[in-house]
Design a protein that fits this description.
This protein is an alpha/beta fold. Helices cover about 50% and strands about 10% of the residues.
Length: about 350
Amino acid sequence: MKPLNHIIRDMPKIELHCHLEGAFTLDFLLSRIHKYEPESEIRDLETLRKQFVFGDFDHFIRSWVWKNRYFRTAEDFRDSTYLVIESLARQNVIALEAFFSPWDFDAWGPGAEAIIEATLEGKEAAEKDFGIPVNLIADLVRNHGHEKAEDKLKQLAPYKGRICGIGLGGDETHFPAFRFEDVFRLARSQGFHTVAHAGETEGPYSIWDAVSRLNVERIGHGITAIQNRELMKILRDRQIPLEICPTSNLKTQVVKSAREHPVKIFYDEGLLITINSDDPTMFNQTLTEEFQFICREYGFQADDLDRLTHYALKASFFTPDIKTKLQKTIENDWDNLT
């Protein structure tokens, strides 16, 4: 068997929780800064990286809003989407489900419809060039308010089939999930898959609202489930997937240390977890490095990584025929590795 670090490097990977707007390449963002603000003091990659060192979750959100100002044209979104998928393909990511929020750029961007079209164009070009299936999930974003959510869903309707689902990220504290119950019910009736960030910055009740009120198929993060044994049992028994993003939780300091992160407890107790990178460029961590991290900190071994790959396939929203093809790829790749 190959050394574990070689297995991690070469293993087939499925990414289910990645925000396109947080996975841009640094080279691309630097080029946009120089294009739109040629007088900017940010002249090199080292200086740019310093913009993404966070004191807390609110600091992370401020940095998120800051970098959005450099995505202004449809071509910016198309090209960035393509480059994100290319960078993941280099890590042997064999399938990707990615969030994007075309409504996050009202102050600078070309408008939601143009962003949707451009993102789809970049995604479909990358699928063809790199041979990996990509599902897009439109993040309605809690902070925009539940009052506007149904209008956003209407904007997505013409793209049903090219956009597979809706998500709900943003501020759990001030924009609770239950306010979005109606739009999630409507989305399900229209055939969209549903997922929500919950239990990242708020307690178990936030996860329970997402499960019981929104009836989501997956939970983004979900780490505060560790505080409620009954909720953990429900998640385990129903096999509701949790999209775990360890480095993200540490960098935003919603978890204070690696020792406190519940990922290994969830895994050992039979919850259906997946390992993901969230906003890899902003957190200076690749998906490959996420797997290295959990092996180093929590003792995951090759057999565990194989199981986690299959968990991700099971939790994904890909069609049965695509899942069958991915299953064969996973089996062949792991046979070669072990």
